[in-house]
From TrEMBL:
Residues 1-19 form the signal peptide. Keywords: Signal. This is Lipoprotein.
Length: 180
């Protein structure tokens, strides 16, 4: 019995150690610590030329290399007052069937939002004045169960659907601030 008890304790300890796994960012595990952040910008895009307007904003703290930025444009408000968000790039057509497009790019340090068209945008101030954007920063290091060289995995959420994104990344809309 004296020899059996240490073996039993060793077996129990190894079972406990083996069952503990903190790889929750692997697609085979539930992800409990991945959270996103968001902030609003009400911006007037600056004229580059008659067909191009841009807005640039610097992050207070550089992003982690794996982070991803999504930017949504508020295009409408529902009957109950909720904003309608559309993921950039976003293109719409004027009454004259001319395309007007919002797009963006980002680095670890900043974002740039652009508005361009073949239309002379200068007299159309409603296209670039006091536009509301929601910047969503997502941790992209979610792991890849397939490994290098494999086909890209299906995204865990439809990024075009703003409500799905905030739900998936546990973003509390009541805490979203407007950046000046």
């Amino acid at each position: 019995m004296k020899k059996f008890l240490p073996i039993l304790l060793l077996a129990f300890a190894s079972l406990f150690i083996y069952s503990c796994d903190n790889r929750d960012n692997n697609n085979n595990f539930v992800d409990n610590d991945t959270v996103g952040t968001a902030f609003d910008i009400t911006a007037t895009l600056g004229r580059v030329d008659d067909n191009l307007y841009q807005y640039t904003d610097t992050f207070t703290t550089p992003l982690v290399r794996a982070d991803v930025v999504l930017i949504y444009l508020q295009t409408d408000v529902t009957n109950n007052g909720s904003p309608v968000w559309n993921l950039l790039p976003y293109t719409f057509y004027t009454d004259n069937n001319v395309a007007v497009g919002y797009s963006f790019n980002f680095s670890r340090f900043d974002i740039r939002i652009s508005l361009d068209s073949t239309l002379n945008l200068t007299p159309n101030t409603n296209f670039y004045t006091n536009k509301r954007f929601r910047v969503v920063i997502l941790p992209a290091n979610l792991g890849n169960a397939a490994g290098k060289g494999a086909k890209a995995a299906t995204p865990p959420v439809d990024y075009n659907d703003y409500n799905s994104v905030i739900k998936y990344y546990n973003i509390d809309e009541s805490k979203i601030k407007t950046k000046n």
